[in-house]
Amino acid sequence: MAESTTAAGQQVLPLVDHLARLGRRAAETQLSRLSDCLRPRHIIALRLLHEGGPMPQHALGEALSLDPSNVVGLLNELEDRGLVTRRRDPADRRRHIVEMSAAGTAELAAVDAQLDLVEDDLLKALSPEERATLRALLVRAVGAVSRRGDRPGAPPMGRRQSRLSAGT
Fold first, then answer.
1. Which of 33, 34, 38, 98 has the most CB atoms around its CB within 10 Å?
2. What is the pLDDT along the chain (168 residues), one digit of tens a residue?
3. DSSP characters over 48-106
Protein backbone atom coordinates (compact mmCIF):
# COMPACT_ATOMS: atom_id res chain seq x y z
CA MET A 1 0.00 0.00 0.00
CA ALA A 2 1.27 3.49 -0.87
CA GLU A 3 2.30 5.89 1.85
CA SER A 4 -0.36 8.43 2.83
CA THR A 5 0.00 12.07 1.82
CA THR A 6 -2.50 13.15 4.49
CA ALA A 7 -1.07 14.58 7.70
CA ALA A 8 -2.13 12.80 10.87
CA GLY A 9 -5.41 14.23 12.15
CA GLN A 10 -6.05 16.13 8.90
CA GLN A 11 -8.20 13.54 7.10
CA VAL A 12 -11.06 14.90 5.02
CA LEU A 13 -13.20 11.75 4.99
CA PRO A 14 -14.60 12.11 8.55
CA LEU A 15 -15.67 15.67 7.72
CA VAL A 16 -17.24 14.62 4.41
CA ASP A 17 -19.03 11.77 6.17
CA HIS A 18 -20.33 14.04 8.94
CA LEU A 19 -21.52 16.69 6.48
CA ALA A 20 -23.16 13.99 4.32
CA ARG A 21 -24.98 12.58 7.37
CA LEU A 22 -26.26 16.03 8.33
CA GLY A 23 -27.27 16.69 4.73
CA ARG A 24 -29.10 13.37 4.44
CA ARG A 25 -31.11 14.03 7.59
CA ALA A 26 -31.98 17.57 6.51
CA ALA A 27 -32.86 16.41 2.99
CA GLU A 28 -35.11 13.64 4.30
CA THR A 29 -36.92 16.14 6.52
CA GLN A 30 -37.27 18.68 3.71
CA LEU A 31 -38.31 16.11 1.08
CA SER A 32 -40.88 14.54 3.41
CA ARG A 33 -42.89 17.72 2.83
CA LEU A 34 -43.47 16.59 -0.75
CA SER A 35 -46.46 14.32 -1.28
CA ASP A 36 -44.54 11.17 -2.22
CA CYS A 37 -40.92 11.40 -1.11
CA LEU A 38 -38.34 9.96 -3.49
CA ARG A 39 -35.33 8.05 -2.25
CA PRO A 40 -31.81 9.13 -3.30
CA ARG A 41 -31.54 6.38 -5.91
CA HIS A 42 -34.77 7.60 -7.53
CA ILE A 43 -33.46 11.16 -7.63
CA ILE A 44 -30.14 10.10 -9.16
CA ALA A 45 -31.89 8.03 -11.84
CA LEU A 46 -34.17 10.95 -12.70
CA ARG A 47 -31.19 13.31 -12.79
CA LEU A 48 -29.35 11.01 -15.23
CA LEU A 49 -32.41 10.84 -17.48
CA HIS A 50 -32.96 14.58 -17.27
CA GLU A 51 -29.37 15.36 -18.20
CA GLY A 52 -28.74 12.50 -20.63
CA GLY A 53 -32.15 12.16 -22.24
CA PRO A 54 -33.77 8.85 -23.14
CA MET A 55 -31.36 5.95 -22.82
CA PRO A 56 -31.31 2.17 -22.95
CA GLN A 57 -32.25 0.53 -19.66
CA HIS A 58 -28.88 -1.27 -19.46
CA ALA A 59 -27.00 2.03 -19.96
CA LEU A 60 -28.93 3.59 -17.09
CA GLY A 61 -28.07 0.59 -14.93
CA GLU A 62 -24.40 0.93 -15.79
CA ALA A 63 -24.45 4.65 -15.04
CA LEU A 64 -26.03 3.86 -11.66
CA SER A 65 -23.66 0.90 -11.07
CA LEU A 66 -26.69 -1.29 -10.34
CA ASP A 67 -27.30 -4.96 -11.03
CA PRO A 68 -29.85 -5.39 -13.88
CA SER A 69 -32.45 -6.92 -11.50
CA ASN A 70 -32.16 -3.87 -9.23
CA VAL A 71 -32.55 -1.57 -12.23
CA VAL A 72 -35.82 -3.29 -13.09
CA GLY A 73 -37.10 -2.77 -9.53
CA LEU A 74 -36.03 0.86 -9.50
CA LEU A 75 -37.67 1.55 -12.86
CA ASN A 76 -40.84 -0.28 -11.81
CA GLU A 77 -41.10 2.08 -8.82
CA LEU A 78 -40.54 5.16 -10.99
CA GLU A 79 -42.90 3.92 -13.68
CA ASP A 80 -45.62 3.14 -11.10
CA ARG A 81 -45.40 6.79 -10.01
CA GLY A 82 -45.62 7.95 -13.62
CA LEU A 83 -42.16 9.54 -13.48
CA VAL A 84 -40.59 7.52 -16.31
CA THR A 85 -41.76 5.50 -19.28
CA ARG A 86 -40.18 2.45 -20.85
CA ARG A 87 -40.65 1.47 -24.45
CA ARG A 88 -39.14 -1.10 -26.74
CA ASP A 89 -36.19 0.06 -28.79
CA PRO A 90 -37.37 -0.01 -32.43
CA ALA A 91 -33.82 -0.94 -33.52
CA ASP A 92 -33.64 -3.89 -31.10
CA ARG A 93 -36.92 -5.17 -29.65
CA ARG A 94 -35.03 -6.92 -26.82
CA ARG A 95 -33.96 -3.57 -25.35
CA HIS A 96 -35.99 -0.98 -23.47
CA ILE A 97 -35.52 2.76 -23.79
CA VAL A 98 -36.17 4.67 -20.56
CA GLU A 99 -37.43 8.22 -20.77
CA MET A 100 -38.42 10.77 -18.17
CA SER A 101 -42.08 11.78 -18.29
CA ALA A 102 -43.43 15.30 -17.85
CA ALA A 103 -44.44 14.28 -14.30
CA GLY A 104 -40.86 13.12 -13.71
CA THR A 105 -39.50 16.45 -14.88
CA ALA A 106 -41.90 18.31 -12.57
CA GLU A 107 -41.08 16.04 -9.63
CA LEU A 108 -37.34 16.51 -10.15
CA ALA A 109 -37.82 20.29 -10.24
CA ALA A 110 -39.75 20.13 -6.94
CA VAL A 111 -37.05 17.95 -5.38
CA ASP A 112 -34.32 20.29 -6.63
CA ALA A 113 -36.07 23.28 -5.07
CA GLN A 114 -36.21 21.50 -1.70
CA LEU A 115 -32.60 20.31 -1.94
CA ASP A 116 -31.49 23.85 -2.80
CA LEU A 117 -32.94 25.00 0.53
CA VAL A 118 -31.11 22.23 2.39
CA GLU A 119 -27.83 22.94 0.63
CA ASP A 120 -28.13 26.68 1.21
CA ASP A 121 -28.56 26.06 4.93
CA LEU A 122 -25.89 23.37 5.15
CA LEU A 123 -23.27 25.38 3.29
CA LYS A 124 -24.21 28.88 4.43
CA ALA A 125 -20.69 29.44 5.82
CA LEU A 126 -19.24 29.16 2.29
CA SER A 127 -19.27 31.86 -0.37
CA PRO A 128 -20.69 31.02 -3.83
CA GLU A 129 -17.11 30.74 -5.13
CA GLU A 130 -16.15 28.36 -2.33
CA ARG A 131 -19.23 26.24 -3.03
CA ALA A 132 -18.30 26.06 -6.71
CA THR A 133 -14.76 25.01 -5.79
CA LEU A 134 -16.04 22.40 -3.33
CA ARG A 135 -18.39 20.97 -5.96
CA ALA A 136 -15.66 20.85 -8.59
CA LEU A 137 -13.30 19.05 -6.22
CA LEU A 138 -15.95 16.55 -5.16
CA VAL A 139 -16.96 15.88 -8.78
CA ARG A 140 -13.31 15.21 -9.61
CA ALA A 141 -12.86 12.88 -6.62
CA VAL A 142 -16.09 11.01 -7.36
CA GLY A 143 -15.09 10.69 -11.00
CA ALA A 144 -11.73 9.18 -10.11
CA VAL A 145 -13.29 6.66 -7.74
CA SER A 146 -16.11 5.86 -10.18
CA ARG A 147 -13.58 4.99 -12.87
CA ARG A 148 -11.85 2.57 -10.45
CA GLY A 149 -15.01 0.87 -9.25
CA ASP A 150 -16.48 0.70 -5.77
CA ARG A 151 -13.18 -0.15 -4.05
CA PRO A 152 -10.29 2.28 -3.64
CA GLY A 153 -7.32 0.87 -5.50
CA ALA A 154 -9.51 -1.17 -7.87
CA PRO A 155 -8.77 -1.02 -11.61
CA PRO A 156 -10.67 1.48 -13.81
CA MET A 157 -14.29 0.61 -14.57
CA GLY A 158 -14.02 1.50 -18.25
CA ARG A 159 -17.47 1.85 -19.76
CA ARG A 160 -19.21 1.63 -16.38
CA GLN A 161 -18.04 5.14 -15.44
CA SER A 162 -20.81 7.09 -13.74
CA ARG A 163 -22.25 10.01 -15.68
CA LEU A 164 -22.57 11.84 -12.39
CA SER A 165 -18.79 12.08 -12.28
CA ALA A 166 -18.74 13.83 -15.64
CA GLY A 167 -19.54 17.16 -14.01
CA THR A 168 -23.32 16.99 -13.83
1. 98
2. 567 776 777 889 999 999 999 999 998 888 887 767 788 889 999 999 999 999 999 999 998 888 999 999 999 999 999 999 999 988 888 899 999 999 999 999 999 999 999 999 999 999 999 999 999 999 898 888 866 555 444 444 433 334 344 343
3. HHHHH-SEEHHHHHHHHT--HHHHHHHHHHHHHTTSEEEEEETTEEEEEEEEE-HHHHH
CB of 49 closer than 8 Å to CB of 96: no
| CATH of region 32-119, choose from 1.10.10.10, 3.30.1360.20, 1.20.1250.20, 3.40.190.10 | 1.10.10.10
Measure the CA–CA gap between 16 and 20, rounded to whole angstroms.
Answer: 6
